[in-house]
Write a structure and sequence with these properties.
Number of domains: 1
Largest sheet: none
Number of helices: 3
CATH architecture: Orthogonal Bundle
Helix content: over 70%
Radius of gyration: 14 Å
Number of strands: 0
Structural class: mainly alpha
CATH superfamily: Tetracycline Repressor, domain 2
Mean pLDDT: 97
Strand content: under 5%
Low-confidence stretches: none
């Protein structure tokens, strides 16, 4: 079970990182962006929201995570108009 969960998490993080690399190559993310760090932070926001909702029945955590993800993407985007005004 541990290995299956660890593998799924590794695959998910790698997918998010590949997507960020593709966005950087397409000029949508600033050239100097550390995509590994960006992917880690985005996944961390989502995982924390899920943990809060599961452990504490706290569903506003998903809204908080959405705002955090949007804020982080705004910090690295090359075109702010490509992002929504709110999550």
């Amino acid at each position: 079970m541990h290995d299956a969960l660890a593998g799924a998490r590794t695959d998910w993080l790698a997918h998010v990182e590949r997507t960020a690399v593709e966005a950087r190559q397409a000029g949508e993310i600033a050239e100097g962006t550390d995509v590994s760090q960006l992917a880690f932070e985005l996944v961390a926001f989502l995982e924390m929201a899920n943990a809060e909702s599961m452990l504490h029945n706290e569903f506003t955590s998903y809204d908080k995570a959405a705002r955090a993800v949007l804020g982080r993407l705004r910090a690295v985007t090359t075109d702010a108009s490509s992002l929504p005004d709110s999550p």
